[in-house]
Amino acid sequence: MAKRKTPGLNTQSTADIAFLLLCYFLMVSTMDQQSGLVRRLPPMPDKNQKTEDTKVNRRNIIIVKINSSDRLFAGDQLMDVSQLKDKIKEFMTNPNDDPNLPEKEVKSIEGFGDYPVTKGVISLQNDRGTSYKAYIAVQNELVRAINEIRDDFCRQHYGRVYNACSEDQQKIAREAIPQNISEAEPKDVAKK
Predict the structure, then answer these.
(1) Is residue 161 within 8 Å of 40, Cβ to Cβ?
(2) d(Cα 122, Cα 85) in Å, to the nearest integer?
(3) Nearest to residue 100, comparing CAs of 72, 73, 61?
(4) Which of residues 189 and 14 earns the better pLDDT score?
(5) Integer Cα distance of 150 and 172 in angstroms
(6) pLDDT one-digit tens code per residue, 14-46
(7) pTM over 0.85
(8) Burial tier of 31 (Cβ tally within 10 Å: 0-12, 13-18, 19+)
């Protein structure tokens, strides 16, 4: 008996099919995008701009420090992250016009009128040994405090929370309740 020759597979178009499948899956699948911290950086200064030294009154600054052991200090008080939001809200609103808390300046806000705006600045400082988890937890609490103050402002003046307000109302709330968070460059305390 003669040996039968087995027919081979036609593999000429296999590479084309694989390429088309790859293209299809790349087009229809979505990649998870991780979002970072929402911060608007100041614009680059003009090269011809003169620099001015701005003096900030000491009472208008609260220094929030995170050390290399992830211990949190707000002002000169050791505290837990869960206490930070209330401390910042009290600092930024200064409800009893405490002379140790930030002063307020009456500003004319377009579309709203005159409103006493805080001059408070939150200065965030951390060590190079600070864990990312602690840093993000503190950032979240600072932003949460500002958002709650804006919600209170919007409820009082517009009857709804900040996110439910129109774009113009949100702009007014941002001008009335500024998010002044200053971040210092991390320090390496361990080497000193």
Answers:
(1) no
(2) 12
(3) 61
(4) 14
(5) 10
(6) 888 889 999 998 888 877 666 666 665 556 667
(7) no
(8) exposed
